[in-house]
Design a protein that fits this description.
heterodimer; A: 137 residues; mainly alpha; 0% strand; globular; B: 112 residues; alpha+beta; two-stranded antiparallel sheet
């Protein structure tokens, strides 16, 4: 645990790398998320981590380093469930708070929540059903 | 939810947005760009980059017709991910009103 006074007060490439690395350590032992990710990334995690450094760099530092289609990627994940997004967001926010001060953590959280909402809509929204849908049993 | 390109892009087309978009969801018409609603992840990175202030969240009121226009042309115009020179007269049209009626072209742009 990093003392409050030592927390990062701005977003940098180095901070993003530390965040991504620490976050996926949590994901890989999480009861809900680990099986989904283990199926998508059975062996070497570094290419995924490197991609995520670029993604968050693009989103938080507007570097344009990431180029990809996350909607299509998520559409192809078997067993993906709406509730998993909440779990993902909770772990991500917890990791942000461990590394960054309140304002910087909030900046990450706002972006992450928006992106999650848009992915959820892309994956689960159906015009003939209410939104948000009832939790799946 | 998605972001949409609106009136002031027409005949300005600065293209700063395409460089920062992480998901390459801009499509190019002859004199404006649009965002593909099924590819945009709502990250909002493009919004402050636009010198013409032409990009807005689709949750803002009064943008229904622009949401429709973006969706319609994103499926027919070519993808653009690399910024080129803006039109020579871009500044002249920046801030002009009601450009859709006067200047909008449904023709595709050149894309990447």
């Amino acid at each position: 645990m990093i003392a409050a006074s030592e927390k990062l007060d701005h977003v940098s490439e180095d901070g993003i790398r530390r965040l991504v690395d620490a976050f996926y350590v949590k994901v890989r032992v999480d009861l809900e998320l680990a099986p989904i990710f283990a199926r998508a990334i059975p062996r070497d995690w570094q290419p995924h981590l490197t991609k995520m450094y670029a993604f968050w760099s693009s989103v938080m530092l507007t570097t344009g380093r990431y180029k990809g289609n996350p909607v299509a990627k998520h559409l192809n994940i078997p067993d993906i469930k709406l509730e998993l997004f909440e779990r993902w967001l909770a772990l991500f926010d917890a990791t942000c708070r461990e590394l960054f001060d309140d304002a910087t953590s909030a900046a990450f959280r706002i972006k992450a929540e928006r992106i999650a909402e848009s992915l959820k809509l892309a994956l689960f929204y159906r015009p003939d059903r209410p939104w948000p849908p009832e939790p799946t049993p | 939810m998605t972001f949409v390109v609106t009136d002031n892009c027409i005949k300005c087309k600065y293209m700063d947005c395409v460089e920062v978009c992480p998901v390459d969801c801009f499509y190019e018409g002859e004199n404006m760009l649009v965002i593909h609603p099924d590819e945009c992840i709502d990250c909002g990175v493009c919004e402050p980059e636009c010198p013409a202030d032409a990009i807005s969240a689709d949750t803002e009121p009064g943008l229904e017709s622009w949401v429709k226009l973006n969706a319609e042309y994103a499926s027919v115009w070519p993808n653009i991910t690399i910024k080129r020179e803006q039109p020579a007269d871009a500044k002249t049209f920046d801030g002009a009103v009601n450009k859709l009626k006067q200047y909008f072209s449904p023709n595709p742009g050149q894309g990447d």
